Amino acid sequence: MIGAKSFLGLSIASPKGISDSNYSLSTNSRSVGVLRACVSMEGSQTMSHSKNGSISELKSVNNGHTGQKQGPLSTVGNSTNIKWHECPVEKVDRQRLLDQKGCVIWVTGLSGSGKSTLACALNQKLYQKGKLCYILDGDNVRHGLNRDLSFKAEDRAENIRRVGEVAKLFADAGIICIASLISPYRRDRDACRTLLPEGDFVEVFMNVSLEVCEARDPKGLYKLARAGKIKGFTGIDDPYEPPLNCEISLGQEGTGTSPIEMADTVVAYLERKGYLKA
Ligand SMILES: Nc1ncnc2c1ncn2[C@@H]1O[C@H](COP(=O)(O)OS(=O)(=O)O)[C@@H](OP(=O)(O)O)[C@H]1O
Ligand SMILES: Nc1ncnc2c1ncn2[C@@H]1O[C@H](COP(=O)(O)OP(=O)(O)O)[C@@H](O)[C@H]1O
Fold first, then answer.
1. Which of 180, 191, 211, 223 could form a disulfide with 115 if both were Cys (CB 3.0 to 4.6 A apart)?
2. Catalytic residue among 180, 183, 209, 258
């Protein structure tokens, strides 16, 4: 049941599973209303979760919202005078809430190799297991965030960099993020890998030959590329660099090659590596 509190004209719903007694409003010396269970001030308490994700006890935190001057300012790229802000509710807390570990499944391969199909099958399988996933598909992200980018090498690199950064945020949220992009350059994929803690970037190679992809040609793009109507098409007149050391390679003879079997392989990997529990 979702309860609600009203404070300074704001109505705040208590999350499912948190009783109203745990979800009280308190006032500190600066008369700022806070949600004690969710957002705590210095010296107050925040929630912690038992193994099964229920909120079992309160842990003391110093969340740094003291108004005191802290640490130096930074310059990152063209962003000057910026400062990283920490929050006492951390990745580990979100992971406990979800009973899973945030990570990035990076699916790379030629157009038509089955990246989107695998991403969707994997998402369905994990959903059935009660795991939270989100897909960042190259085609889809290019409809919005990356609509300003073309297919020349530096734009593909920027496409991968942005998706890598967004995927990192999803993983930090505790979500299993499936990024499915051609991502033809090793260097760009490796740069995304370095954004994440060891093990949290799982590179999945759709090891399907150009001949097979071209025979599938579901969007008719290979035909257009062969006819010279699309320039710089991956695999035709633009490069694709296969991974040298990926975690999972799918599509070869002797392994399950249906989307369901491929998704099972990835789920088994995640289970083995402990990503499907907190
Ligand atoms: N020149 C060229 N080369 C390759 N692909 C092209 C091109 N032009 C358009 N498309 C369509 O764009 C989809 C690939 O987008 P991505 O963002 O995954 O590409 S990349 O990672 O930046 O290389 C790709 O989708 P998929 O077939 O799902 O891979 C194509 O539909
Ligand atoms: N494992 C598979 N075996 C056979 N056909 C597949 C498989 N995965 C995808 N396909 C088919 O191949 C085509 C391309 O798949 P898609 O997922 O769109 O590839 P991509 O996202 O890499 O471009 C689609 O017609 C799809 O139905």
1. 180
2. 183
Nearest to 146 by CA among 195, 103, 179, 187: 179
Read off the pTM.
0.83
- Residue 110's alpha-carbon distances to 134, 211, 228, in angstroms, are 21, 11, 18
Q: What residues flank ligand 2, with Cβ below 6 Å?
A: 109, 111-117, 216, 218, 257-259, 262
Q: Which residues have a Cβ under 8 Å from the Cβ of 250 and sit 6 or more positions away? A: 118, 204, 205, 206, 207, 257, 262, 265, 266
Least confident of 46-60, 145-159, 180-194: 46-60
pLDDT-derived band of residue 67, with 50, 70 and 90 as boundaries? low
Q: Is 150 labeled as catalytic in the residue annotation?
A: no
Atom of ligand 1 minimally distant from the CA of 184: 23
Q: How far is CA 52 from the centre of its chain?
A: 23
Yes or no: say if 174 and 98 are a contact pair by the CB < 8 Å rule: yes
Q: Which amino acid is at 210?
A: L
